[in-house]
Amino acid sequence: MKKSLAQMIKNKRLEKNLSMVKAAELIGINYVTLWRIETCKITDISYNTIEKLATFLEISEKEVRDLC
């Protein structure tokens, strides 16, 4: 995964003043999954998670996939 996706997620989370736990709840994913994405420790993101991240980031699913 490229760092740009991780940075986009972190920036959006901080912009909304959310902790990682609260952001994970809002996105609808496990906290550990969000941590792994933000720290670039995940290599494959499920389609379902991509959908949720796209909604959170307010970008298209294609844009998220292109960043993975």
Give a quick summary of the entry.
With 68 residues, this protein is mainly α. Helix content is 69%, strand content 0%. It has helices at residues 3-15, 20-27, 31-38, 47-57, 61-67.
Question: Can you put this structure into words, describing what you see?
Answer:
The structure is a single chain. The termini are close together. The protein is an all-alpha fold. The relative contact order is 0.21. It has five helices and no strands. α2 (about 20-25) packs across α3 and α4 crosses α5 (about 60-65).
List the helices and strands and how they pair.
Elements: H1 3-15, H2 20-27, H3 31-38, H4 47-57, H5 61-67
Helix pairs in contact: 2-3, 4-5
Key terms:
single chain; 68 residues; mainly alpha; 69% helix; 0% strand
Q: How would you state the average pLDDT, rounded?
A: 92
pLDDT < 50 stretches: none
Our measurement of the CA-to-CA distance between the termini, rounded to an integer number of angstroms, reads 5 Å
- Report the major sheet: none
Which structural class do the helices and strands define?
mainly alpha
Cα-atom radius of gyration: 10 Å
Q: What is the chain-wise order of helices and strands?
A: HHHHH
Strand percentage, roughly?
under 5%
Counting H and I runs of at least 4 residues, what is the number of helices? 5
Q: Considering DSSP H and I runs of 4 or more, what fraction of the residues is helical?
A: 55-70%
Total strands: the figure is 0
- Based on CA inertia axes, which overall geometry fits? globular
